[in-house]
């Protein structure tokens, strides 16, 4: 298996505080890779570094063999590495259909044509409906995204991301704040979309991680503590100590 | 006109139609009919003033309501364009349409230059940067030779349209101004409802998400800033031809504040709100002028009441009650 995303010596300092310290990470193509760790372990920082929403202080990131360390987040999305957000990221005032169309519109490149009618965007409607049906939101196609329940917003977010047909998806706590029945639905969805994609996710819900991931990287205090499949990392004394220590601390 | 099917059979709010919804078409037609009759009912100069400000507010609303960017320096483009247009008509002897065009182009360039610096900051810092540049334009207008300082540029001749049709008559000028402002407002409507407008709304709703979908959001912001400045300039340039005057009032910071007030009062992010807001404010200033300095106080009270009672603005509230976008 080839390595699709690779970070070497990834470091991020905030005014003297080192949030992420020399993290090495290799994500294999076609796997679901989870990034876990106690609160304040640097997971989200690490995630933001990989998607270039933060610029690393030191280190190097390569995606599909290409150095992306100094690229802009929009460039990375165009290379096929698309992220989600911890708080559900939908365009509230747009309809569900329009939300997905915004992603499909990317196929035209940038949309600077302010003189054309938006009617031309209806060419993407059928594709958009496909993605919307796919995540089970068919009956909400013409609803404003802001009116959807939390779980459905996350489903819409995934539909929008899928519409870009990215080779790699980075999910930031996809289950955060979700009811159990939604967790199962989104888990199934993630498993299905990961069949021909690479997924890297940050997740708190350990049962989800155990269930979904092929490989887990445990972070604590900004450093990699352990790596391997769930059975391996859950037995690691360092991991047990970090989690229990964190709970008592 | 095709209506999007309501597949679920449930109640659907803000049902999306393809192209211009019939309701909007009807409103625009009624408005056009009203505006054609207007100069025969009220003083044409007053009606033209309302239309210029309606276009100015609509241009400002493109940036604030659809781009999510609060500029506090739009007087720079409005007033800047009025100076250039007045100078072009008076000194260079441009015909009215060319003078307006020159003013508009100047505003576009100014918008491009200021916008490219301002969009690097967000929120209040963005507003402050735009204000700072607008103040620079104000002091330029005060100090430069060709702007006439405190006097402004006065007695700008009303030339002949295309060098052929004289616009000295108020009614003739009125229809020239109607064509420009109504056309400008329709152009802004198209911008909001274009592929570009869709991305713009997405950026307004959630900028990081738009970035993560691969959009270079700063380019969209610069584009909308420039477009907004251009149409603000079109309004200012037209106004200078109506009043045959370019003055410091048009570049003063209070003009930047007034357009914010018009837009918020009418309803930002709505199509018709800025037009209503502009009409109310200009009418008030006109008919309450006898109260002198009290106009400002009355305006202030209305603004406070507006913010407290209906934050979405007049058209915003109506739109919510009717469950239709207006």
Describe the structure.
The complex is a heterodimer of chains A (249) and B (326). With 249 residues, chain A is an alpha/beta fold. Chain A has one domain (3-248): 3-Layer(aba) Sandwich (Rossmann fold). Helices cover 35% and strands 25% of the residues of chain A. Chain A is built from nine helices and ten strands. Chain A has helices spanning 43-50, 73-79, 96-104, 125-134, 150-163, 180-193, 206-212, 230-235, 237-248, and strands spanning 3-14, 17-28, 32-36, 58-63, 66-67, 81-83, 168-172, 198-202, 215-220, 223-228. A six-stranded mixed β-sheet of chain A has the order 6-7-8-3-9-10, sandwiched between helices. A four-stranded antiparallel β-sheet of chain A has the order 2-1-4-5, covered by helices on one side. In chain A, a hairpin with a 2-residue loop joins strand 4 and strand 5 (66-67). In chain A, helix 3 (96-104) crosses helix 4 and helix 5 packs parallel to helix 6 (180-193). The radius of gyration of chain A is 19 Å and the shape is globular. The model of chain A has no long low-confidence stretch (mean pLDDT 88). By secondary structure, chain B is mainly alpha-helical. Chain B has a domain at 42-253. Chain B has helices at 22-37, 44-66, 75-90, 96-118, 123-143, 170-192, 195-205, 207-212, 217-243, 253-266, 273-287, 294-309, 313-322, and strands at residues 160-161, 165-166. Chain B has a two-stranded antiparallel ribbon with strand order 1-2. In chain B, helix 2 runs parallel beside helix 6 (170-192), helix 2 crosses helix 10 and helix 4 crosses helix 5 (123-143). The two termini of chain B are 18 Å apart. Chain A binds chain B through residues 51, 53, 72-75, 77-78, 82-85, 89-95, 97-98, 101-103, 105-106, 108, 110-122, 138-144, 147, 160, 164, and chain B through 4, 6-8, 10, 12-16, 18-19, 190-191, 193-199, 201-202, 204-206, 208-217, 219-220, 223, 227.
